[in-house]
Each structure stands twice: as structure tokens, then as C-alpha cells.
Amino acid sequence: MDATYIDLTVRLSLALILGGAIGIEREYRAKEAGFRTHFLVALGSALFCVVSQYGFGFDLKDSSRVAAQVVSGIGFLGAGTIIFQKN
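Above: the chain's sequence. Below: its structure in C-alpha cell form.
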């Protein structure tokens, strides 16, 4: 197995573990977004970053563009949650 596949597997697994840990903590405190939500958001974010870094060839590495859009999207979801809770 190539080192790249091991690296990708470690990155995605770490995202799943950390996202799941945050989700379990939120479910323990009876918050709205729990394990499944954080698990999937963390996996999706990590997968988009990996695809942007390696999906279009190894010579083209401008992964900061996709990472910036992931941050913007998560911020948008957070703002929607705050506005929803105030009403």
C-alpha cells in the first residue's frame, strides 16, 4: 500500500474520530446537532479538502480555496442555527 493511501486513511479516520467525539459530547449535553451531524460534517470537510489537494493531480496543490469554502459553509450553518434559536 502506498504511503499516500495511508496518509489519506489517517486523515479521514482522525476527522471521523474527532467529529464523533464532539457529537457525542453534544448529545450528552442534549444539544440539537449531535453525533451523526458532527460525524458527517467532519467527514465531508476532510473529504473535500483531500479531494481538492489530490483529486486534480499532484502538481496542482491549491487546497486553500476549497478549505476556505468549507469554513464559509460551516460558518453559514452556525449563523443559521443562531438566527433560528433567537426566533
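The chain is about 80% helix and 0% strand.
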